[in-house]
């Protein structure tokens, strides 16, 4: 039957044990996640600098944030990074998934290779790519050795290009993940639909374009959500690859927040930037979760 | 599909495989070279004579800021951090998932929704209040504090994993056990837990990877004696006091990556399953 | 002694009323069937008897004791589930022992019980297997064994056969009936299968929309269904519901039937009880087997549209009073589609319903 009901519980133990067992986790989350969000919100309305200082200053920190060139660089970078990283990882991942779905020998081995970067820490990824992209001995030297004497690659130390190195490393790390999710989705599609389309005389690209990819909408959206979430939280990769530099040319909101709150003694400003991140995430996540929960309730 | 097309297909797939493997090859070969060789050769050149000096240095004597005792201390810090954090967050997740799927009560759905949103909170909003609170409890920059943070931030994910798995266990099993006279704990220990091996593996591996690879909390909530390997690696690689020793950096990066790569290779099945489960999460 | 009494039990979730005042009384040793289409509330009622859900109102008595506030484990019941609900990580022996163990039965006694049950259900050779290694029928057997291990006052069966294939289902049905004869236990059995209901039950409660439509012996329900729903639900193929006018011809009350150009007047037996309905529209319920071939050329000349041979009988389809009617005939009497048969309803067994209230008349 579609109506769900809670089981009947009898006696003290059955009534209170479930609540008691859930209580510690619930309280931890309530206090240390939701309580701290409120606390951080409060800090963003104060004049806190090196130490918390509960002198109320209204929206002054937000005004300072929006007047800060560095913040806008970070937001602009997040936009560039977000679009290129999500688009790139999606494109690479989807193409690899479709290619792997063609009854490939060695599929297991290839899948393992495409996916292993995800097991690495972003710090490891950043360190490795930092070495490969470094202007002296890395890619540039390799191309010179191969005879392209005029090749120059200085993105890592070029303020106009540094953010793109983060995109490159990010796509390397996460595209295998997209591949795995889409491959699982492709495998979940009912074979008989494809057979029916083949009998109708549709070509393979047409079958993918018209039938299979549209059926992957849910996978597409959940992958988009995850990548967007990774992009907004990106911190480690920047710290390891460029440290936000040169200057602050490759800052993202997450590194901006860290710098302000923990190294530059601008606690109020850091709190305000964290709130902006939360608002951005919520704007994306809350509608998504709402629709997910509604859907699961109707299943 | 025609033969030539399949050839192209395999070529593309193999080139992609090279793209993913290249950084690993570069890391490994660089770590086995001497600095002279690095300057003389290029990224792809093979090491002439294999030298483990860079590995020794990365483990024992490389400078990470002022200290010059390599990554070994950081490595063991990470081990001591990751074990309790993974075990505690997984145990809590299993219990919460059990309650939220099999012992629902008025308000338990709301509690679940709150946990679910907790997965998406950017941790930046927690950093300042958490730093201060840990200070009040005397846990600032301590291993215990770091473990605590990882547990709090891990509960939502582990709970979701177990809850989604337990929803798939038929309610009739629980009903049958209740008619057989078993209570809350006996049903959990005798019926539910023995069925949980797959999700237990997934959660343990997922949490291990997440916590081992964490950098943000390590950077903010620990110092000196308690810093994890990711912080050590970053300090080592970005230390500006001396000439960059890329071979040592690569050896250090590999040391930091080894445990998670080992888990990935040994238990890849569970790792991928965790990813799929984590897709709901993020 | 009353083994089970349900008094005005209601259940609602928010504004949805699942059970709307259920009253049932079962004597010790009786086999009660709760039957109805899915969503009728029978499983909810079963769960309330077991104590797995609590009623919104009313009382549940087991062995003359109110058990509303008694936990399932203290109600002295055992249950067989539709999915069998065998513990997958335990072998058959452990599955049966689990309930004994939680009740603190000594190990030696447990072994005796397991031996007794295994012998009764002929499953000694399965004791060391895990549920995953058993066939559907074997799992069903183990699930029954687990319920039999204790000697409860009341057995609950929740659609225990619906996951079995047709042949096994018939075998297990017989086995359950034999078991009941042997053990003389009280059984409440939920099913949506009207054949199971008819073959197994001492008493049947037909449910729909959270209301008991009729409560009685299988024969009572078959012969004198309380309303159109019960009449249509019990019996296969279903009872024919023929709309007709009730008329009086020369003091005899009956209905006129028409098929194509042919027409006849079918008088009702003991017809004065329908006097109040003369001149009104009624629905005449005639079961497929309640049609005879009128050898004398009387009856109603019906054109055959379709035949369905089942082996022992042949179902012929025809049109009477504008609706499709099925008649179950001996194969030798059936004719091929297109030909004409003279059919006569057995009006002594026909039942009449009020088309407005759908309740049986008379």
TrEMBL record, chain A:
Domain (ABC transmembrane type-1): residue spans on this chain: 75-290
Highest taxon in the source lineage: Bacteria
InterPro entries reported for this sequence: ABC_transporter_permease (IPR051393), MetI-like (IPR000515), MetI-like_sf (IPR035906)
Its membrane topology: Multi-pass membrane protein
Transmembrane feature ranges: 20-42, 78-100, 112-132, 163-186, 207-232, 267-290
Signal sequence residues: none
UniProt keywords, alphabetically: Cell membrane, Membrane, Transmembrane, Transmembrane helix, Transport
Location relative to the cell: Cell membrane
Similarity comment text for this entry: Belongs to the binding-protein-dependent transport system permease family.
Name of the protein in its database record: Sugar ABC transporter permease
Annotated organism of origin: Jeongeupia chitinilytica
Automatic annotation (TrEMBL), chain B:
Pfam families noted in UniProt: BPD_transp_1
Gene3D superfamilies to which the protein is assigned, alphabetical: MetI-like
Domain of life (superkingdom): Bacteria
Entry's localization field: Cell membrane
Keyword annotations of the record: Membrane, Transmembrane, Transmembrane helix, Transport
Residues passing through the membrane, by range: 7-28, 81-100, 112-131, 143-166, 187-208, 250-272
Keyword Transmembrane helix: yes
Family that this chain belongs to: Belongs to the binding-protein-dependent transport system permease family.
Name listed for the protein in its UniProt record: ABC transporter permease
Annotated source species: Jeongeupia chitinilytica
From TrEMBL, chain C:
UniProt KW Membrane keyword: yes
A single GO molecular function term of this UniProt record: ATP binding
Transmembrane segments: none
Coiled coil: none
Domain of life: Bacteria
Gene3D superfamilies: 2.40.50.100, Nucleic acid-binding proteins (2.40.50.140), P-loop containing nucleotide triphosphate hydrolases (3.40.50.300)
PROSITE patterns, sorted: ABC_TRANSPORTER_1, ABC_TRANSPORTER_2
A Pfam family annotated for this UniProt entry: OB_MalK
Alphabetized UniProt keyword annotations: ATP-binding, Cell membrane, Membrane, Nucleotide-binding, Transport
All copies of domain ABC transporter, residue ranges: 4-234
Protein name as annotated: Sugar ABC transporter ATP-binding protein
């Amino acid at each position: 039957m579609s109506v769900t009901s809670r089981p009947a519980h009898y006696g003290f133990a059955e009534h209170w044990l479930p609540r008691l067992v859930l209580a510690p986790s619930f309280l931890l989350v309530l206090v240390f996640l939701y309580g701290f969000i409120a606390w951080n919100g409060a800090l963003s309305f104060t004049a806190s600098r090196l130490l918390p200082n509960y002198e109320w200053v209204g929206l002054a920190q937000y005004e300072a944030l929006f007047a800060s060139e560095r913040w806008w660089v970070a937001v602009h970078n997040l936009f560039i990074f977000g679009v290129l990283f999500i688009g790139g990882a999606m494109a690479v991942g989807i193409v690899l998934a479709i290619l792997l779905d063609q009854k490939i020998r060695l599929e297991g081995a290839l899948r393992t290779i495409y996916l292993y970067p995800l097991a690495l820490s972003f710090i490891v990824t950043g360190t490795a790519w930092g070495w490969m992209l470094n202007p002296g001995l890395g890619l540039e030297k390799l191309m010179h050795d191969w005879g392209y004497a005029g090749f120059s690659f200085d993105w890592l130390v070029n303020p106009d290009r540094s953010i793109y190195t983060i995109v490159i490393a990010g796509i390397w790390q996460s595209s295998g993940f997209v591949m795995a999710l889409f491959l699982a989705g492709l495998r979940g599609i009912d074979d008989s639909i494809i057979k029916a389309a083949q009998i109708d005389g549709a070509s393979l690209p047409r079958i993918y374009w018209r039938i299979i990819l549209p059926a992957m909408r849910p996978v597409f959206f959940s992958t988009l959500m995850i990548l967007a979430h990774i992009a907004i939280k990106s911190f480690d990769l920047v710290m390891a690859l460029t440290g936000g530099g040169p200057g602050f040319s490759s800052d993202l909101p997450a590194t901006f927040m860290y710098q302000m709150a923990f190294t530059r003694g601008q606690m109020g400003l850091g709190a305000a930037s964290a709130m902006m991140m939360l608002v951005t995430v919520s704007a994306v996540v809350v509608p998504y979760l709402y629709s997910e929960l509604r859907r699961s309730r109707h299943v | 599909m025609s033969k030539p097309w399949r050839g192209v297909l395999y070529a593309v797939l193999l080139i992609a495989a090279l793209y993913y493997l290249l950084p690993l090859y570069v890391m490994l070969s660089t770590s086995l070279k001497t600095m002279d060789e690095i300057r003389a050769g290029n990224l792809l050149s093979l090491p002439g004579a294999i030298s483990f000096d860079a590995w020794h240095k990365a483990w024992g004597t490389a400078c990470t800021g002022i200290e010059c005792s390599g990554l070994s201390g950081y490595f063991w810090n990470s081990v001591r951090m990751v074990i309790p954090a993974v075990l505690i967050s997984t145990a809590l997740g299993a219990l919460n998932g059990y309650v939220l799927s099999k012992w629902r009560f008025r308000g338990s759905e709301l509690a679940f929704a709150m946990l679910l949103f907790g997965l998406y909170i950017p941790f930046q909003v927690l950093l300042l209040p958490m730093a201060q609170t840990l200070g009040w409890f005397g846990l600032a920059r301590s291993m215990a504090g770091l473990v605590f943070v990882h547990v709090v931030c891990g509960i939502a994910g582990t709970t979701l994993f177990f809850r989604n798995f337990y929803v798939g266990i038929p309610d009739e099993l629980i009903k049958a056990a209740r008619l057989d006279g078993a209570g809350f704990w006996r049903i959990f220990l005798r019926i539910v837990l023995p069925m949980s091996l797959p999700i237990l593996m997934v959660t343990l591996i997922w949490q291990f990877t997440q916590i081992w690879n964490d950098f943000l909390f390590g950077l903010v909530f620990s110092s000196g004696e308690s810093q994890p390997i990711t912080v050590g690696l970053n300090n080592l690689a970005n230390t500006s006091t001396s000439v960059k020793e890329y071979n040592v950096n690569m050896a250090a990066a590999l040391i930091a990556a080894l445990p998670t790569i080992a888990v990935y290779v040994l238990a890849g099945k569970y790792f991928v399953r965790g990813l799929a489960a984590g897709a709901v999460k993020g | 002694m009353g083994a089970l009494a349900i008094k005005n039990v209601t259940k609602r979730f928010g504004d949805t009323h699942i059970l709307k005042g259920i009253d049932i009384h079962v004597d010790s040793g009786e086999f009660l069937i709760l039957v109805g289409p899915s969503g009728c509330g029978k499983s909810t009622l079963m769960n309330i008897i077991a104590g797995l859900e609590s009623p919104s109102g009313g009382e549940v008595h087991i062995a003359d004791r109110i058990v509303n506030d008694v936990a399932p484990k203290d109600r002295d019941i055992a249950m067989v589930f539709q999915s069998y609900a065998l513990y997958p990580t335990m072998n058959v022996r452990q599955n049966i022992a689990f309930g004994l163990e939680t009740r603190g039965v000594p190990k030696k006694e447990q072994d005796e019980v397991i031996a007794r049950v295994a012998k009764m259900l002929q499953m000694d050779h399965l004791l060391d297997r895990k549920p995953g290694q058993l066939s559907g029928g074997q799992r069903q057997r183990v699930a029954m064994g687990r319920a039999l291990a204790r000697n409860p006052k009341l057995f609950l069966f929740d659609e225990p056969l619906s996951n079995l294939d047709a042949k096994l289902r018939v075998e297990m049905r017989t086995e359950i009936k034999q078991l009941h004869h042997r053990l003389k236990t009280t059984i409440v059995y939920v099913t949506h299968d009207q054949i199971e209901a008819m073959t197994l039950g001492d008493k049947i409660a037909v449910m729909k929309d959270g209301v008991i439509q009729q409560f009685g012996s299988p024969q009572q329900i078959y012969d004198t269904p309380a309303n159109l729903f019960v009449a249509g639900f019990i019996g296969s193929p279903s009872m024919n519901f023929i709309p007709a006018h009730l008329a009086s011809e020369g003091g005899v009350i009956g209905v006129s039937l028409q098929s194509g150009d042919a027409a006849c007047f079918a008088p009702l037996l003991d017809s004065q009880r329908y006097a109040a309905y003369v001149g009104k529209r009624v629905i005449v319920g005639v079961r497929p087997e309640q049609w005879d071939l009128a050898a004398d050329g009387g009856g109603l000349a019906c054109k055959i549209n379709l035949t369905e041979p089942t082996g022992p009988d042949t179902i012929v389809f025809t049109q009477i009073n504008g609706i499709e009617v099925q008649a179950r005939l001996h194969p030798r009497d059936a004719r091929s589609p297109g030909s004409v048969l003279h059919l006569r309803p057995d009006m002594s067994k026909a039942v009449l319903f009020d088309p407005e209230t759908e309740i049986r008349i008379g």
